Amino acid sequence: MSATFDTVEEYWNWSDIEEAAKRASSDSTQVFRTSLASYLGVDDHAALTLMPSARSGLERLLRQHLGQRRSVLLPEFNCSAVQDAIEAAGGKLRFYDFASSPGLFDWSAVLRMADSTTGAIIVTHYSGVPVDFRSIIDFCQENKILLIEDCAHTLGGCIGSATAGTLGDAALFSFNYDKPISLGWGGAVLVNNPTYYLSGSIRGIVIPSIAEEIGLLRTFIRAMGERRKAIPRQGRLLEKFIQRLGLHRVYPFTKAEDIGIGAVQAELGLQCLSRYDEIKGIRSLRAERFAIEVRGRTWPVNGDITPAWLKQKVHFSDRVALRSEIAEAGGARW
After folding, report:
1. How many CA atoms lie within 13 A of 194 on its CB side?
2. Which of 150, 176, 197, 271 is 20 to 30 Å from 59 by CA-CA measure?
3. Which residues contact residue 10 at a Cβ distance below 8 angstroms, ignoring those fewer than 6 apart?
4. CB neighbours (10 Å) of residue 222?
5. Pairwise CA distance, residues 308 & 291, whole Å
6. In which element (H, E) is residue 216 found?
């Protein structure tokens, strides 16, 4: 008997939801918020705000603090949700790219792009590996440029002795299905610089009742179950043919954009945090094994960076190199 595991998604099941619902109370979200801030090493728990999504958190942050300087510098390799949030907040996208290889940046070249229209710079921590951006912190402070860390894929990684998300003016965290801690939906904004605190940050956020929340989580689990069953079929010719014809059966998970994190999710979050260091260790061991298999083509970890692996990225210069690697590994499916 075989089973398919998606190792980057949630590590709870329906019985955990039922137990979380029993523990849920009016204090649950506050306790989760405080616990998450403590995990990040933040003393001022008020600096962390739970959001319906990281995207909505970024949009609110930029709406309040972008000002007249509307240009936002962000990596070319980024999530479309980040771009959508910037544009929704009235910002103008300006992209910077990797330097010598994926994951590495020439920060002096990035700063040369900054001008009188630059209101913010976004630094993306990819796949659980923090990017060392310390060389641009002073410049951003001196020029009053909002420096935002995108930690959607990174929770618990470190840059030197500092936890990723605590060095910039603000940081974004996500709890969607493919993030370090999955709660089905939701996110958080951490503000480290009091200049950029969010005023009225919870205004307009709808907190679902326990019954509504359980209904949404039931839909989420169903959608993820279908997604997992499809994983072994994704490379098959018949599956590609079915998708092309539009006959593929899908169970998408959707919710209203203003629905925030409820008490049941908060209790799940507390459970996830209690196990997170263990899960992070398992992911790291898998990432290290994967890195050995592909011999130096994985995402770079440089200097005094401590990763909190989520997804391992592999870089091949061309398809020939990719085929060669697979052939030498005996056709292994990574």
Report:
1. 1
2. 271
3. 177, 181, 182, 183, 184, 224, 272
4. 12
5. 15
6. helix 210-230
Q: Tell which residue, 59, 105, 60, has the closest CA to residue 82.
A: 59
Which tokens in the block code for residue 262? 């409820």
Which comes out higher in pLDDT, residue 323 or 223?
223
Structure tokens at 319: 């398809």
Long-range contacts (CB closer than 8 Å, 24 or more residues apart) made by 41-45: 41/163, 41/166, 42/166, 42/190, 42/192
Pairing of strands 146-150, 158-159: unpaired
70 band by pLDDT with thresholds 50, 70 and 90: very high
Q: How far apart are CA 61 and CA 59, in angstroms?
A: 5
Which numeric CATH code is attached to 1-275? 3.40.640.10
Q: Both tokens of residue 51?
A: 């959001």
Tokens for 217? Answer: 């989580």
Full-model pTM: 0.88
Cα dist. 152→45, 81, 125, 180 in Å?
A: 19, 11, 8, 8
Domain boundaries, the chain: 1-275
- The SS3 of residue 314 is strand
pLDDT tens-place string over residues 105-151: 999 999 999 999 999 999 999 999 999 999 999 999 999 999 999 99
Q: Give yes or no for a contact between 190 and 37, defined as CB atoms under 8 angstroms apart.
A: yes
pLDDT band with cut points at 50, 70 and 90 for residue 333: very low
Pairing between strand 187-191 and 48-51?
Answer: antiparallel
The SS3 assignment for 119 reads strand
Dmax (CA) for the chain in angstroms is 62
Place of tokens 């709406």: 63
